[in-house]
Amino acid sequence: MSTAKKEYKRVTVKSLVDMKATGEKISMLTAYDYTMAKIVDSAGVDVILVGDSASNVMAGHETTLPITLDQMIYHASSVVRAIYRALIVVDLPFGSYQSDPKEALRSAIRIMKESGAHSVKLEGGKEIKESIKRILNAGIPVMGHLGLTPQSIYKFGTYTVRAKEEQEAEQLLEDAKMLEKLGCFAIVLEKIPAKLAKQVAESVSIPIIGIGAGSEVDGQVLVLHDMIGMTHEFNPRFLRRYLNLYEEMSTAISQYVDDVKTQDFPNESESY
Ligand code: KIV
Hints:
- By secondary structure, the protein is α/β, with parallel strands linked by helices.
- It has helices spanning 3-6, 13-22, 34-42, 54-57, 69-80, 101-115, 129-137, 153-156, 166-182, 194-203, 224-227, 245-261, and strands spanning 26-30, 47-50, 87-91, 119-123, 142-147, 186-190, 208-211, 219-222.
- Helix content is 42%, strand content 14%.
- α3 packs across α5 (69-80) and α5 (69-80) packs parallel to α6 (101-115).
């Protein structure tokens, strides 16, 4: 291990549970490549999610469904090489765990072995209970994901807020308790009413990380490219943009094009 690596106290699944117990909020962001992951890690983010949102953000697909296990492993291994401190969670992509628990375990093992990541995330509740159990039994930490689960977008039909009706809210609460009981170390709750998210966070002892789930949970997650404004078409209410990189990068790139055309670049000091 390098000296640099020794300077950092790594975030572990245990430290996240301790953070919940002491009331320290957990910060989580996505990253899909080495350069971005290095910035995110050194800025002090606790958890880096190699999300299947790479399907949208990196590959330009309309949904998260097309991304493959091999592609997730490629993204995850790039992120792993950049990280000194953060806990790395990798999404099991659509089609790699829904058919049967043995396949789910094989997929999770491939992610852990081939990327060096620390844990996996799966979307769903009771319908994937057996798969989660099998992965946990192999010693692989699992993060759950309830509420709006983008891999089921064609079942939902829209990306609107989930669990507004009592029956769905009750099922979500039950699923969260089940995930805790199975041994998941945390749960992402996506786009559900803040009141329900608070109720879930108070009902379980594992951390609840929200995205569009209000402030009364144990941590927050956003897609990096959205929060730094590299994307600009996607504007949900829950998204706070900390930069407008789309504009800034466009201006810089246009300037470069002008400089090349007018032979302003390179100048004498930039030449050999
Ligand atoms: O893939 C992803 O980026 C996610 C977050 C939205 C939680 O699952």
